[in-house]
Design a protein that fits this description.
Shape: globular
Strand content: 15-25%
Structural class: alpha/beta
Helix content: 25-40%
CATH architecture of the largest domain: 3-Layer(aba) Sandwich
Low-confidence stretches: 1-19
Largest sheet: 6 strands, mixed
Length: 339
């Protein structure tokens, strides 16, 4: 039901679909760049490369993905923000990051500064190295409550999805943890597989293959309900319990991922991309298969509908940072009201 509602919402925002055959359509004369502000192999990188491949044909131009990790994604995002407003440079990532960079003092930008185009919504998962001794979330929770400062949890860094999950858990239970930061979800996942840290908080799309290979133990997902990782090859379907089994009522907003360009690009760029999102991305079998295989939600949203959906997690996360003492700027001063 939620999947159908989100797709219908995306389509409802378009009165008349725009195609590249339409008068005044944008036709880039040079390759288009999508900056992924995280290391290769992570959730943003995975999504952006599929989107890029789907856009190349309709645009009639190469769409190049460039990884520029650092400073919790703010370096690559800044480069996209400061690029010429010609439509040739886009950023990719999680919308909640863009919405909270100013709260964290990492980058002077907010969600409203961007033209938003979403592809999928991802779910956070806490995973354990098989040698860590943690077989379920309850055992990990008790350990983090009693000796958490000595237990490393790998994430993609401050403001990453995994960090947000751990901060939500800390706010709900007063647990502690030693934050081990990496330049992306894939390096954080690899650190947990190798035993560099006993636990990892990453996105399920990043950990899916290692969970299927039994090199990571899935403890719990931050979602309203359990999530099933679909069967693949010889690997059976795996149901991962919701963290709400142990912590009822913990926030579990959807985490939207996509690409965006800074406001100020020509109107025909936005109109053309809006048409492509409606006619190409919304019908992308590659994105649908990717989402289904990695327990993500296919959400081809754009425009105001994208902003309104992402704003739910931005509000929750911004105040989570503030209450946890990690904010440099009060969300209230930025027009982010407390939930």
């Amino acid at each position: 039901m939620l999947r159908r509602h989100l797709i219908a919402t995306a389509a409802a925002g378009i009165a008349a679909p725009v195609t590249l055959r339409a008068q005044g359509a944008w036709r880039p004369e040079r390759p288009v760049t999508i900056i992924v502000p995280w290391a290769a192999g992570g959730s943003t990188d995975q999504m952006a490369r599929i989107v890029a491949a789907e856009l190349e044909g309709p645009l009639g131009q190469r769409v190049v993905v460039v990884n520029q990790p650092g400073a919790s994604g703010s370096i690559g995002t800044r480069n996209a923000l400061e690029a010429p407003k010609d439509g040739l440079t886009w950023a990719a990532g999680a919308a909640v990051d863009v919405g909270c960079y100013k709260v964290l003092g990492l980058l002077d930008t907010q969600l409203s500064d961007w033209n938003l185009f979403f592809a999928v919504a991802n779910v956070n998962v806490l995973v354990a190295n098989p040698q860590s001794g943690f077989r379920d979330f309850g055992a990990a929770l008790e350990a983090l409550k009693t000796r958490g400062q000595g237990i490393g949890v790998a994430t993609a860094g401050v403001s990453s999805a995994g960090h947000n999950m751990m901060e939500a858990l800390r706010a709900a239970t007063q647990l502690q943890y030693r934050h081990a930061t990496y330049d992306g979800g894939n390096p954080a996942m690899i650190a947990t597989v190798s035993g560099e840290t006993p636990l990892g908080a990453v996105l399920l799309v990043e950990a899916a293959e290692m969970i299927r290979a039994r090199r990571l133990v899935p403890l719990a997902v931050q979602s309203e309900n359990p999530v099933t990782l679909a069967a693949q090859g010889n690997a059976p379907a795996i149901e991962i319990p919701s963290v709400r089994r142990w912590i009822p009522g913990i926030p579990a907003p959807l985490n939207y991922f996509g690409i965006w360009s800074a406001k100020g690009v020509p109107d025909n760029v936005v109109q053309t991309m809006t048409g492509l999102w409606t006619n190409t991305i919304a019908n992308s079998q590659r994105l649908k298969d990717y989402a289904n295989s990695r327990a993500a939600l296919f959400t081809p949203l754009h425009g105001q509908a994208a902003h309104d959906e992402a704003w739910k997690m931005v509000r929750q996360t911004a105040w989570l940072y503030f209450d946890g003492g990690k904010a440099r700027v009060s969300p209230e001063t930025l027009g982010i009201a407390r939930l």
